Amino acid sequence: MMDLNCTFTRLAKNNIDEEMYSLIGELYPICRSITGDGVRSTLDILKKRIDLKTFEVPTGTQVFDWTIPKEWNIRDAYIKDGKGKKIVDFHDSNLHVLNYSIPVNKKIPLSELKNHLYSLPEHPELIPYKTSYYKETWGFCLSHKQLQQLKEDDYEVYIDATLEDGSLTYGEYYLPGKSSDEFIFSTHICHPSLCNDNLSGISVTTFLAHLLTGQKLKYSYRFLFIPGTIGSITWLSRNEALVGQIKHGLVISSVGDKESFTYKKSRRDDADIDRIIQLILQQNEEPFSVKEFSPYGYDERQFCSPAFNLPFGSLSRSAYGTYEEYHTSADNLDFIQKEKLIGTLKLLLHAIYMAETNTRYINLYPKCEPQLGKRGLYNALGGHVDSREREMAMLWILNYSDGNHSLLDIAEKSKIKFELLAVISLILNQHGLLDIKTGNISKEPSFVS
Amino acid sequence: MMDLNCTFTRLAKNNIDEEMYSLIGELYPICRSITGDGVRSTLDILKKRIDLKTFEVPTGTQVFDWTIPKEWNIRDAYIKDGKGKKIVDFHDSNLHVLNYSIPVNKKIPLSELKNHLYSLPEHPELIPYKTSYYKETWGFCLSHKQLQQLKEDDYEVYIDATLEDGSLTYGEYYLPGKSSDEFIFSTHICHPSLCNDNLSGISVTTFLAHLLTGQKLKYSYRFLFIPGTIGSITWLSRNEALVGQIKHGLVISSVGDKESFTYKKSRRDDADIDRIIQLILQQNEEPFSVKEFSPYGYDERQFCSPAFNLPFGSLSRSAYGTYEEYHTSADNLDFIQKEKLIGTLKLLLHAIYMAETNTRYINLYPKCEPQLGKRGLYNALGGHVDSREREMAMLWILNYSDGNHSLLDIAEKSKIKFELLAVISLILNQHGLLDIKTGNISKEPSFVS
Amino acid sequence: MMDLNCTFTRLAKNNIDEEMYSLIGELYPICRSITGDGVRSTLDILKKRIDLKTFEVPTGTQVFDWTIPKEWNIRDAYIKDGKGKKIVDFHDSNLHVLNYSIPVNKKIPLSELKNHLYSLPEHPELIPYKTSYYKETWGFCLSHKQLQQLKEDDYEVYIDATLEDGSLTYGEYYLPGKSSDEFIFSTHICHPSLCNDNLSGISVTTFLAHLLTGQKLKYSYRFLFIPGTIGSITWLSRNEALVGQIKHGLVISSVGDKESFTYKKSRRDDADIDRIIQLILQQNEEPFSVKEFSPYGYDERQFCSPAFNLPFGSLSRSAYGTYEEYHTSADNLDFIQKEKLIGTLKLLLHAIYMAETNTRYINLYPKCEPQLGKRGLYNALGGHVDSREREMAMLWILNYSDGNHSLLDIAEKSKIKFELLAVISLILNQHGLLDIKTGNISKEPSFVS
Considering the entire predicted model, what is its pTM? Predict the structure, then answer.
């Protein structure tokens, strides 16, 4: 069984917060999109830390109701004014180019140019992030302030991009456990220079995968690094056979900003993953927000589509689309806090620990209480400062281990920390008081005559 | 499918508020009771607007545990003082006579008269409405003020009434729809000169029936104009075979006063009609009150009796028996507000619209989201000012159309207006994304492998 | 059927409050423990009031996971200082001796004595109550104030006790009713001079048993006077065959102090006993507290262990272990209030009345309302000041007597007092409107076609 404390110690010793932040810094300049070399370079960098397998799905491949689009690659882009001065330059910020722009190279007057310019009047200093994946066009994004200063002139617009048959690239890291049942973490890798959304998700997921590597685990773990929407659709269409094995899933995105956690529940509403994350958040001291499932947001839209209805929740700090830095040039390195990255990593490790250790036990002495004293379990625990709490944990576990209640159920009912219940249940198991319950949950405790 | 907007336009164009109010004025002077010519004249007036069928059930007929009583008719009634002056006159207000009084014609002293007088000490200016259907007696109702001014004298009491074998009369208007499943509106017609209770109900129900006539409807509609209690018992006893077809029902009464709506839920508590009315009330801007079912009130008592347990709610403005004008001469034409009549009519049309359009769809592309863009459904809706809301409606409908959720379920979950969901689901259906789900609800989405 | 009013009248006439208090006074000086002559003398005193049967279970008997311990008896105990002065004397308070102390007789210095002394630093005036049933040792309890005043000296410690093979004693009073289904009251008898915990429970239970004796009852009643934990384990191990007959159970303890009631629900959470006690508490005017089941407290721990999961709640005033007098010399006769004893007795009688009269009826006229008037039931009840409430009770009972709802269900739904519903249902039954429903609850009202 995974040891949570050891793992937490490793986090502290290895300055993983620095490493996570620095990975974000390394990935930041790359211009990613839903296809293309930006994704490939990103995955190559991740491969230095985890043994990621990458997949290439050719343009034109049918994935459910969708088709893999042409591959987009960009080398350069700018707008020059009449005097030949670059006033907008892709090399300053890759957000300047409408993502998936087709190539262009011509001189046009301001009036025509304006049809291809995107800005944010409500945030006049920021460059917006815009895309046009499925409608072929070109465009530039710039601050509204700059847009307003543009004078009548002939402008040279230049985009050196290609949109051609190629493939969609995604990465997958699979960590086999004792069981073929899976816990999946999915993070999107299609955004260019945007840090919280979603270099934070990429970085935390990578380090999570790294930390789990080599641990003895019950579940098999799969980490998906995929372009948003088309990526999860592609993955699901190629992995339908796996669907029955997916027991827990989390979509990880926007997990590095200063806010406390937002958890969006799965469509099932009370999947174990929903209960696990809520239990952890309730035990934490910081505030948090839990949202009901809605069919809008990140890739949980696909994982929770009605034919799959997978137990996938979505974890963020600032909620999807609600913050002013969202999809703008303000989602930069300054927007990320190292301690928030590490806090996210800890939450995820905690969730994994709970999924790994959650067990339904059956009390082997269910008629009245077993005599704990004669086994040295009662008071004998007096050495612990928390002996009374441990005693209560024993009583709760014994009373509710009727084959129908898991440790998660008992934690919810008793308000005792899951970790303590997990430790105590092992002790009770070692003393022959509990057995592990396998098979289905019966309506009535099985030992009631 | 019924078009709600068109119908609302017709309401406005035709000054139906004036017409409803004027119908109340026409019916006001008639002395109605649970039997007799007052009911017949009332139904005759309604027949000018809707093709009502009337039924006569003979005195002595057994209707479940009850028996149709003798028919009561009254022509004149008064009290004269010693000087021969009429001090109480049926022709001033039919409330003056205890409803179902037997004939009387004698001179009696004040002391004896007082045993037959009814007044309201707590509302000394008002004449109460009193009945004695099942105990043969006679009496007069008058203001407490007048009662207190009566001096010792010999009074002539005269009631020219008959209580004889005859029949109980009720009216029914049936509007066949595509399905034999029924939506029933029931309103009581047994009260004499009382406007809110229940000429308002009679008038609104009549105009509702009138407006639905000629529309293409899914459900069959039945409008019952029946005396309270004995009328619904009679109708149910004669129409037991229909019971299985009744899918929605509403008892309409006291719907013209100035108060906001009171909805009393059916005994089933979560029948579709309960959910529909609550959803409309929640979407409206005015306050409202929802009450749990109780076996006391109007004819829902009979429709919701345990052997029938029909999905019948009860709609009023001021709640049953709670207002001081209730069952007094103050429930007159001044107590009715035209805009409240029209507001009730609109609510009922809205409820009908929802019952008619509520559908369980099945998403034909349930694996991930279908690609809305390529069908021109996504953003292409940008022309609408509410394009984002329409987009969300599409996503909600697609995600929850697993065969187990109706539009009503989706409206409750998503908080999106039912009308928008109804419109969007038709569009999705036209684009081949949705099919109509028929048959029973399965526990699990049928397409989950 | 038990008559609640008659029984309440008997309570008042017989000064039972005085008698209950005086029984507590009689039992107070006895040094009880989980075994020994203290328990036997206690039961002998109770035998003067109820025909209690006592049982002796030999040391060494296996009772589930436990073994009946050696029997403990004590005659004398003291600590003398160097001058031979008794500074701690068992005859002043039996709390002075660690309950289950082994014999000792020696002189020891203060430093060694201190290892055997127990006090309460947070309540320096009070003597604590301490036990050591399963670990052989000796000790004294004293006020912290006295402990701090002890000087360096040679102390004589003397405990004249025996811990030998013998038996565990418990008492049982069985009152057979019409049915072999049982209602059990259990109270612990193992505490020495402590009044609230649990002489109050012993006294109230004794008088409850006494009052029920001779009454015609539906249920059979069993009153258990048992040592805590080992006693209930012993009883359950010897009476496993009875378990299926136990329909309601209450653990009674700490019911004489000044506080209002605390009810701890059974592990089943919505057993009839849980609903009955909560309904009574809600109808009472005083505040009360209801707690969820937890596997810690009094003997409900054993009755609600997972293999039995019996419908046992636990009734107290001050909750288990929460008051500062708990398990100290301050839990003395002054801590008990007579009116609280009688209040507890009334609550228990009320609960018994409800369990006895709770019935599922079936309305024999379920199609619409039966005509109450022709049976003289409607208005004819006008003589009662509460005639309207009685009328409502009739309507509620008739509407919900579909075979699925008991009077308890109807009381919860209607907010009408259970007692009124019980009386009215008898009247309706006598008038042939209701029949008693036997057999299982069906999902649907059985008379719906």
Answer: 0.93
